[in-house]
Structure formats: structure tokens, C-alpha cells
Amino acid sequence: MGTHITEPLPTPRTQAGRDGLAALLAHPGSALVGLDFDGTLAPIVADPEQARAHPDAVPVLAALAPKVAAVAVVTGRPAEVAVRYGGFAGVPGLEHLVVLGHYGAERWDAATGEITAPPPHPGIAAVRAELPAVLERAGASQGTWIEEKGRAIAVHTRRAADPQATFETLRAPLTDLATQHALIVEPGRLVLELRPPGMDKGVALSEYARHISAGAVLYAGDDLGDIPAFAAIEKLRTEGVPGLLVCSGSTEVTELADRADVVVDGPEGVVRLLRSLAALSAS
């Protein structure tokens, strides 16, 4: 890390954000740092199977993690996939890292390398069988990409001739398909994910924050699926737990940027922020 210059931390634009940052810096040992994966630690790419963490992400996390209570990567991906694409396994310094995969339905602990998870929802297998016909009827079989996520299935439209129009065309038929099998649709950046109800990033973040008795919480995300995590921090603030909301800058999801205390320039900006936190956190 010696070749990197640590930048000053940005000043949060809200008083609640400034209080959250101050609490993180004053008492890092009780802080939880929560991070989305795609678009936050990993640049968005056309093919989700090619997503990989920013090259500086793991070294920065290894510098930060020993100073905080925990680092939690909260993602809709299967935990094992996020661990593999992130390069998190077997890294000295990451013993305090967990991956909450499938919106918290799965948990991977770096300290043990083990994944704990409940049985998959039966609706996923039914949707998997019916999805190709639904896309065909909607005239969206060309240019869409089906991502198998084990406990969820995602349909990406980023490769379509008109990605946004295809996204809008598919919202209703995919919502109908999900409803038939007791699933929900989670919209994202040119992606519609069909998954079981009852878990989201807010639930996952809140439960883990309470599990470790976090004294302060930072969460960084970039997409609509991160809004529940922002809401969870806002609720924790009302309970006396300071928090900081960070948007990994996206022109595609302005709602998140409008709600954030700090907006940074994508994964590169997230890495810079985490590097500064690692350098400035009290020992």
C-alpha cells in the first residue's frame, strides 16, 4: 500500500452522517463496515460472471478489517461466488470479514471458511424451468442474460439492443412469474432478480449489526437493492447507533445518491474511502 497516497476523508453532507463518521473514527473496534459487491467493490461489467473485485479492494480491506469489529460484504450473489470473485479466502488480515450472500440467507465466515445456509426455496426450480418460455413470449429471448444464482435467478438486459426498453418490457411478466411461485422481483441496474421474500440487504445488515453489538455502522452501495440497507442504518440511528451512508456513484440510480451522506466515484472511490478510514482509524 506504500505507493498509495491517503486522501482526506470526504465531509458528509448531513449532521447524522458527520456523527456516523466521527463515531467510526473514534471507536473503530466496535464498528461494522458493510459493503455491497457489484458496483461497489467490483466494477459493473456486461457479463456478471466476469465481475471481479477492484484490484486494490482486498489489500485495503485487509488493512481495515483488523481495526473494526467486522467487515460484511452484503450481496445478492451466492456467498461462495462473491468469495471467489472477490478473492477473499485465505487472506491474512481478513479474519473479521463475513460475506452475507443471497441477501443474508447465506453466511461465509473468513475465520472458518465455512458457509451456513437454509434449504433453497422450491419456487426457484419452477421459475428456472419456465423462464425461457416467458422471455420468448415477451419477445426478449435475444440479448437477455439469465444468471443462475442458486437461491435466486436474475435476468440481465444490459446486452440487449435497447437495454432499458427490454428491462421495462420484462417487469410485468417476470413479476407475474415470481408471484405464481411465491417469489418477489428485485429490480436493479438493468437486471430483474427473482428471489424468495423476507430477506433483503436491510434485514441482513440489521441482524448482523445486532449480532455483533455494533457501535457504529457504515454501508456503501450503488443500486436499488441497497436502499433497504440505507433504511436499516437510518433506523439504527433512531436507536442511538451512529451510521454513515455511502453511495458508490451511479448515474443509473439517483435515488441512492440523493439519500447518501457521501457519494464517491464508483469502486475506485470506495477503495479510496476505505483506505483513508484504515489509515485514520484509532488503533
Set down the secondary structure blueprint.
Layout: H1 15-26, E1 31-35, H2 57-64, E2 70-74, H3 79-86, E3 97-101, E4 106-109, E5 114-116, H4 123-137, E6 145-148, E7 153-156, H5 163-180, E8 184-188, E9 191-195, H6 201-211, E10 216-221, H7 227-238, E11 243-248, H8 254-259, E12 262-264, H9 266-280
Parallel strand pairs: 1-2, 1-10, 2-3, 10-11, 11-12
Antiparallel strand pairs: 3-4, 4-5, 6-7, 7-9, 8-9
What does it look like?
It is globular and about 55 Å long. An 8-stranded mixed sheet has the order 5-4-3-2-1-10-11-12, with helices on both faces. Helix 2 (57-64) packs parallel to helix 9. By secondary structure, it is of the alpha/beta class. Helix content is 37%, strand content 19%. Helix 2 (57-64) links the parallel strand 1 (31-35) and strand 2 (70-74).
Task: Sum this structure up briefly.
The chain is of the alpha/beta class and 283 residues long. The protein has helices at 15-26, 57-64, 79-86, 123-137, 163-180, 201-211, 227-238, 254-259, 266-280; strands at 31-35, 70-74, 97-101, 106-109, 114-116, 145-148, 153-156, 184-188, 191-195, 216-221, 243-248, 262-264.
H-E string = HEHEHEEEHEEHEEHEHEHEH
Proportion in β-strands: 15-25%
Give unreliable regions as ranges: none
Give the terminus-to-terminus CA distance.
18 Å
* Helix/strand structural class: alpha/beta
Number of strands: 12
What is the helix content? 25-40%
Q: For the report, how would you describe the main beta sheet?
A: 8 strands, mixed
Adjacency order of strands in the biggest sheet:
5-4-3-2-1-10-11-12
Give the overall form: globular
Total of helices: 9
Gyration radius, in Å = 19 Å
Q: Quick check: average pLDDT?
A: 93
